[in-house]
Amino acid sequence: MSKEEEKAALNSSDNNSIYETDPEDVQAPGNPISTLDTATGFSLIDDTNPQEIAADEDLADELASDLEYLDLVHLKVKSLENLNLDRFAQLTGICLRQNLVDSLVPLKAISKKDQVTELDFYDNRINHISKHVNEFENLEVLDLSFNKIKNIKNVDRLSKLKKLYLVQNKVHEIKNISNLKSLETLELGGNKLTEIGEELLNLSSITDLWLGKNYIQRLQNLDSLKNLEILSIQSNRLTKIEGLEELVNLRELYLADNGISKIENLDKNTKLEVLDLTSNKIEHLENMSHLTSLTDLWFSYNKISSFAEVEKELSKLPQLDTVYFEHNPIQTENPTSYRRKLKLILGSSLQKIDATYIRS
Predict the structure, then answer these.
(1) How far from the centroid of its chain's Cα atoms is residue 4's Cα?
(2) pLDDT in tens, 238-261
(3) What is the DSSP string of 222-259?
(4) Is the dihedral of CA 235, 241, 243, 246 positive or negative?
(5) Domain that holds residue 337
(6) What CATH number is given to the structural domain containing 321?
(7) Which band of pLDDT confidence, cut at 50, 70 and 90, is reported for residue 47?
(8) Biased composition, Polar residues: where in the chain (predicted)?
(9) CA nearest 221: which of 203, 239, 243?
(10) Is residue 232 part of a domain?
(11) Contacts of 124 (CB under 8 A, 6+ apart)
(12) Is 96 part of any domain?
């Protein structure tokens, strides 16, 4: 799958549909829950009869005591308690992705927590971030995506944390992260956020911020993120582009699947290379001719009807090589001449239209 196809899969026009109802509220007895993995686009169906592999000494005994990276992926491990984590004196990282772990409390058994830089419990059954997570003061990567966590807490002492992943949980509010001064990547897609909280104002080191598939209504509290390069707030409830004036280093902006009706307030974002406004309510191309670094423009499923506007706003963008305008009036009303006109207007730099390369 190409990079463009991967992005297109993420930018589903079914805005928030898979998050409107909590699966726990509607599951019928005996029926598996199906959720969507936002990284792949594939449905994940819970195993209703998991064959649990006991997390006991037998499993851990197979591993050398001088192990530095504990990797037990997709083994249906349910409990950490009997893994005897204390005997792994040289641990620097733990990866227990795709298991059935429901508690992080047993992490307290690790004696040399200061050596551990990575904890990865992606796709488990965790509903609470244990206070013992806060004891890993040199932690750089924490991945708790695809769990059942409602509150961000017990991470405030992780001053060296660089990457925090909490995708597809049940988080309602961004909080208790203002002390994470080293944080570079924050991923909170697929949660229940309704606003971008003030906690972010203290996190000037962030370069990547992913907030897609939530219920956010306004772009706000982003002013201090001077180093931000990637911002994704697709599939939310935005109606206006605003609050981005201070993000002068922004390179990629994903605003697909919202209710935006106008292109505006991008005057200071001259380093933009990728702009995704797929599936909005935009009728006119405007306020874009200054984006001379733009290489990719994603604009499918809008209401653009004027080739003259395309020429005025885009013909002088020297780096533009990929455009998507399918399911706009300029495409639906001109099916035979659409590609030819775009090629003539946008010139030799254009390489791809709607995922199809231009023939030389």
Answers:
(1) 16
(2) 999 999 999 999 999 999 999 999
(3) -TT-TT--EEE--SS------S-TT-TT--EEE--SS-
(4) positive
(5) 283-360
(6) 3.80.10.10
(7) low
(8) 10-19
(9) 243
(10) no
(11) 96, 97, 98, 99, 100, 101, 102, 146, 147
(12) no
Residue 329 lies in a domain: yes
Q: Please give the tally of structural domains in the chain.
A: 1
**The residue type at 101:** V
- Using DSSP's 3-state secondary structure scheme, residue 121 falls into coil
Q: Which residue has the higher pLDDT, 123 or 65?
A: 123
Q: Which two tokens stand for residue 16?
A: 């928030």
Six token digits for residue 160: 């060296």
Report the C-alpha gap between 21 and 26 in whole angstroms.
8
Contacts of 64 (CB under 8 A, 6+ apart): none
Nearest residue to 31 (alpha-carbon basis) of 52, 48, 49, 51? 48
Question: In whole angstroms, how far apart are CA 112 and each of 119, 133, 164, 220?
Answer: 14, 13, 21, 40
Residue 330 in any domain: the answer is yes
How many whole angstroms separate alpha carbon 244 and alpha carbon 220?
8
pLDDT at 106 (0 to 100): 97
Q: Which residues contact 115 (CB under 8 A, 6 or more apart)?
A: 90, 91, 92, 138
3-state helix, strand and coil shares in percent for the chain, rounded to the nearest 5: 20, 15, 70
Q: What length does the chain have?
A: 360
